[in-house]
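hey all, quick one before standup. I had two proteins in the batch that finished overnight and I want to keep them in one place so we stop losing track of which output belongs to which input. First protein below, input sequence then structure tokens straight from the run.
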Amino acid sequence: AIHRRSGTGVTSLQPAAVLFDFDGTLVDSAESVLASLAHALRESNVTPVVPLTRNIIGPPLRQTLATLAGRDDVALIDDLARVFRADYDSVGYLRTEVYAGVPEMLQSLRAAGMQLHIVTNKRIAATHKILGHLGWTSWFSGIYALDALTPPAPDKPHLVRHVLQTESLAAPQTWMVGDSAEDQRSAMQNALRFFAAGWGYGNAAMDGADTVTLTAPAQLLRAAGLGG
């Protein structure tokens, strides 16, 4: 870790690595996911029991489908998941939008020598497709998802712990950025400094001793002593 003077005049400890959530933090997948979810529900003649809004984005796919269907029928969820994946992995992911300022932030962090990693509830196959489509793959030293582990990680706190161990990352030198309460919990349980992506659609607490709320990606650069 390197000590740098930030633009605010406060000395900051530059992290050796930053773990990023994906949906709601780096990219806005809401409209693309909702479109493919609606397609799956129509194809299976299922009327959603909760509104099909971006509020449901975030949890693993099967959990989201069970919430929409109002029941955890394994055969039904299997069918919905199959139709969703077919649509999303062929055309849906192409609708993914990028939050303003994120590419510049990622490039600056990489140029400063930091390791960047993705930790996401999104399926690993779809995550790779989007990263490839955006031309971002080379920016990340590691790309991790719940279903990338065998057996799959039970939740994101476990996934983050796995990343720290696998990549030999020291918690005091690692930051985490995310938009959800689960992201915040994942950071806290692994003793990481947490930054809440205020532009996302999650519900990370906007205060707390170990939480800094960002309203724009460039603020993460200033926290790391990069930029004005």
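OK second protein, same deal, sequence then tokens:
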Amino acid sequence: MSAPPQPPAQALPADALAKTSADHLTEHRLTSETLFTGRFLQARRDTVRLPNGAAATREHILHPGAVMIVPVLDSGDLVMERQYRYPLEQDFIEFPAGKRDPGEEPAETARRELLEEAGFEARDWEHLGGIHVAIAYSNERIDLYLARGLTHVGARLDDDEFLDILHVPFERAMAWLAEGRITDAKTVVGLLMLEQRLRGGR
């Protein structure tokens, strides 16, 4: 049986978002099935009740959360990484990042990942915010941090981690972004947030 037709969407002015609820858009879980449990990811298939009463299937991935660090050297250069990413079978230029361990606060993860991957400790930290990178099929949230006052103390890579550390002038990184050399979503957001701060004198 097909679902009843939907009424035309009504456009809301932006100011109305603060005064209205999204309850009429909420999907309610009816059943849930675990399809796969890996080292840190879990895939699930849920049946949900849609706002119009019909049922639908939602396949999604549960993620423990992650962080990314935007490390800025005293010279103004950025500490970045070149790393091979198997799902896309190519190397990417990224900022240091990593998943949260159980019970670990994002700020702790940021300090640990900057040290382990890039070999730096930072004197000054700023939380830039959080992003959701795959909202259609994952609950993954990445917290972004700006790190300044860097001191190099040596990397501590895991046995299965292989990467190059790069010191990249900000203008070069933005050129790579414009040229499509940098396409990693979290790194794109980090660069744009940094650009905003540099323009504002922060």
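Flagging for whoever picks this up: The longest strand covers residues 120-132. Helices lie at 106-118, 170-179, 185-199.
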